[in-house]
Automatic annotation (TrEMBL):
Belongs to the SNF7 family. One of its GO terms (cellular component) is multivesicular body. InterPro entries: Snf7_fam. It comes from Galdieria partita. This is SNF7 family protein. The keyword ATP-binding does not apply. It comes from the Eukaryota. Residues 209-218 have a biased composition (Acidic residues).
Amino acid sequence: MGWFSRKERPTLGKMQETLQLREENFDTKVAKFDQELLQYKSQLSKLKPGSPAYQSVKQRALGVLKKKKMYQAQRDRTSNQAFNLDQTQFAATSVKEAKDTVTIMKATAKDIKKGLKKVDIGELEDLHDDMAELIMDSEEIQEALGRTYDVGDIDEAELDGELEALEDDMLRDDLAEETPSYLKPRETNGGIGIQNETTSTHNERQKIEEDELSQLAT
C-alpha cells in the first residue's frame, strides 16, 4: 500500500510534511540508540576484557551501533530528499510569481493604453504654451510695478544753493527766537517790573542788539 490513496493526489507540500515526519522519527530512534550505547559502555567498563560476560555485552553493543548507523544513513537520505523538494518548491514559486508578474504587467499596460487614448497630446502642448505666456505676462507686470519714476537730471550746484539758503533761514529763525539780556525782567523795590524806556536808553539797546547780531553772524 502506498503513502497516498488512489483518490488523493500527492502534492509538493504533503510530500514535504511526510519527509519531515520521517526525519524526526529517525532522529528519535538514533537518540534512543545513543542512550543504549551509553549503558553498554558503562557495563563494559565494569567487566573484565575477554571474559564471556564482556564479550556478550560487546556483541549487543555492536548490534545497537549497526542499527544506529543504518538509521543515520536513512535520516541523511531523507534530509537530502527534503532539501531537493525545497529547491523544487522555490523554483515552482518563482515560476508562479513570474507568471503573475507578467499577467499584472499586461493588465497594467492595457490600462495605460486606454488612459493615453483619452489624453490629447496637442491639448497638453497648448496648455503648456499658455502657462508659459501667463508666466511671462506675470513677470512683466511685476517688473512694471517695481519700476521707479524718472525725475530727470538734477543739478547738484542748484541743490547746494538751495541747501545754503535753507541753512541761512534756519539761522535767522534761531536768532529771532533769542531774547536780548536787556529785555529780561529784573527786581525793583516795588517788585518785578520793567524800567521806563527813554530815548537814550532805547538807542543804547538798539546798538547792543546790533553788536550781538554781528557777533552771532560771525
